[in-house]
Amino acid sequence: MKKLKQIVVSIENSPGRLYEVTHALGNAGINLRALNLVDTGAFGQLRLLVSDVTKARQLLMEMHIPAMVNEVVAAEIEDRPGQLAVVLKPILDANIQVVFMYAFLRQSSQRAVMIFRFSDNDRAIAVMQENGVNLLDSEKFGILENSDIAS
């Protein structure tokens, strides 16, 4: 499966709240694979790719932090100018919208990993595969997923 399960939580924009969440996950032995925090006013939207999705979601719910799970696509691309545009052009041509994205650089391989949510993840996966984009599945990303989690 080429889609990853991502946890999404809203946390208060208050001192220490991000620390509280990341500290609790760390204490539970859950490794952060990628994260993105966006300010939305009184709250921030925290998107997390973690080593154990089920355990992380349960922990957050126990902390009274509602945790949604949705699906994203991780694409590994060369870390050089213009490479993202090369990946996005076929997506644009297929009339698929990027809902959100974030990125990080894998220092060990000199490659960037782009995390996407598309208007149609399945079509986007097909288009990217047709265009030779390397997609990372949960195993390659080091994520333990439970298929019973609602997306």
UniProtKB/TrEMBL annotation:
Supply the CDD domains for this chain: ACT_Bt0572_2
Report which superkingdom the organism of origin falls in: Bacteria
Q: Which residues form the signal peptide?
A: none
Q: Which InterPro entries has this protein been placed in?
A: ACT-like_dom_sf, ACT_dom_pair
Q: Indicate the segments forming the ACT domain, all copies.
A: 4-139
Q: Name the chain's protein.
A: Amino acid-binding protein
